């Protein structure tokens, strides 16, 4: 009989991340967010011009004897993350110039397929007190799929809606974690030196998961991933070896109120919608053989044929192939290239496709 696994959902697993990862079953998570040690290699105290001490990252967990040791550690935890990821899962890793390039190379060595590098631009960065470098005002997130053939999830329409109906770019301006969100320890000092803002995790989790799916955080810290996951009705697995961080994370997550289920529905993705071929518009009577389609600029015209092709005076084929041919482009989205006339206005034929799709979905709902 195979090994039996108890998946520790919505709990903080105390212990070394690699050991705990090895206890998890394979292919059990839909996404990973990792905020690993940065290996800052600080040699001296950092002070402000007034000689006050900067509260930087000098914890034991961020110390490695050399780069080789850091690379070995990185390869080990990424290998285990890859094992527990589903084939359609994605991984996010955040870092600074100290470590992100080494992590990126190891990700590629292990077979991950990098999708984006996201620049998190901090709207309130710490100044460069010595005046010897540019102010370090950003961190880098690598977003990668399990491999280049993965059918990974990207909630494109949700990201577009989140960005005032503009396509989400790879540069994100989000403030550092401050104020009431920043957890404090004894003496009022921040409990964790690199606590990430919930706004950052909100965007990440919405981008690549659906409600009910599981996100793994192997460096859980004070539980930002878990808090946002709970609020958005996602499951989480958090791994943290520091007892104070783990206890703070548990208390923080327990205080989170999940949002109402009806508000969690994401903007629909056209990739997830049922496929509707151009010929279905003719079958539904939305277009008729002999109808004329034109390009938006009016320069190109084509006649609709009964079999779902369109023809010009010199060629005949699909809406996509003929669009590319007349526009002299390598490829063309015929749904947005070709237009029809309705009430004196030119509209893309995609309007008819969406109209038919809504009609079919309504029929399914009525039958149910």
How would you characterize this protein structure?
- The protein is an alpha/beta fold and 368 residues long.
- Helix content is 29%, strand content 20%.
- It has helices at 17-22, 67-84, 100-109, 156-162, 198-208, 224-231, 243-254, 279-283, 319-327, 334-337, 350-367; strands at 11-14, 29-34, 85-95, 113-122, 138-145, 171-174, 214-217, 235-240, 292-295, 301-304, 310-311, 316-317, 338-342, 345-348.
- β9 (292-295) and β10 (301-304) form a beta hairpin.
What's the SSE blueprint?
Elements: E1 11-14, H1 17-22, E2 29-34, H2 67-84, E3 85-95, H3 100-109, E4 113-122, E5 138-145, H4 156-162, E6 171-174, H5 198-208, E7 214-217, H6 224-231, E8 235-240, H7 243-254, H8 279-283, E9 292-295, E10 301-304, E11 310-311, E12 316-317, H9 319-327, H10 334-337, E13 338-342, E14 345-348, H11 350-367
Parallel strand pairs: 1-8, 2-3, 2-7, 4-6, 7-8
Antiparallel strand pairs: 3-5, 4-5, 9-10, 9-13, 10-11, 11-12, 13-14
């Amino acid at each position: 009989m195979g090994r039996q696994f108890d998946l520790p959902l919505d709990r903080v697993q105390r212990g070394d991340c690699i050991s705990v990862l090895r206890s998890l079953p394979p292919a059990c998570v839909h996404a990973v967010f990792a905020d690993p040690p940065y290996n800052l290699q600080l040699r001296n105290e950092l002070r402000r011009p007034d000689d006050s001490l900067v509260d930087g990252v000098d914890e034991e967990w961020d110390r490695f004897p050399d780069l080789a040791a850091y690379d070995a550690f990185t390869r080990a935890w990424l290998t285990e993350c890859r094992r527990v990821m589903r084939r359609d899962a994605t991984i996010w890793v955040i870092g600074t110039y100290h470590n992100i390039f080494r992590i990126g190379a190891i990700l590629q060595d292990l077979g991950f397929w990098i999708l984006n590098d996201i620049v998190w631009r901090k709207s309130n960065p710490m100044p460069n007190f010595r005046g010897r470098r540019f102010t370090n005002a950003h961190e880098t997130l690598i977003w990668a799929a399990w491999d280049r053939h993965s059918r990974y999830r990207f909630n494109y329409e949700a990201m577009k809606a989140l960005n005032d109906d503009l396509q989400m770019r790879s540069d994100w301006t989000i403030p550092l974690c401050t104020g009431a969100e920043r957890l404090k320890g004894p003496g009022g000092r921040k409990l964790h030196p690199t606590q990430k803002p919930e706004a950052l995790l909100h965007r990440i989790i919405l981008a690549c998961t659906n409600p009910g799916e599981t996100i793994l955080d192997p460096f859980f810290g004070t539980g930002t991933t878990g808090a946002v996951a709970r609020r958005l009705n996602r499951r989480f697995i958090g791994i943290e070896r520091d007892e104070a961080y783990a206890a703070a994370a548990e208390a923080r997550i327990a205080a989170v109120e999940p949002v109402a289920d009806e508000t969690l529905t994401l903007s629909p993705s056209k990739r997830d919608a049922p496929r509707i071929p151009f010929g279905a518009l003719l079958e539904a009577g939305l277009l008729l053989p002999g109808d004329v389609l034109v390009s938006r600029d009016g320069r190109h015209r084509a006649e609709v044929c009964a079999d779902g092709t369109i023809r010009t005076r010199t060629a005949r084929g699909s809406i996509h192939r003929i669009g590319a041919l007349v526009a002299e482009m390598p490829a063309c989205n015929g749904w947005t290239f070709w237009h029809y006339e309705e009430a004196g206005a030119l509209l893309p034929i995609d309007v008819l496709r969406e109209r038919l799709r809504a009609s079919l979905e309504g029929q399914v709902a009525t039958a149910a």
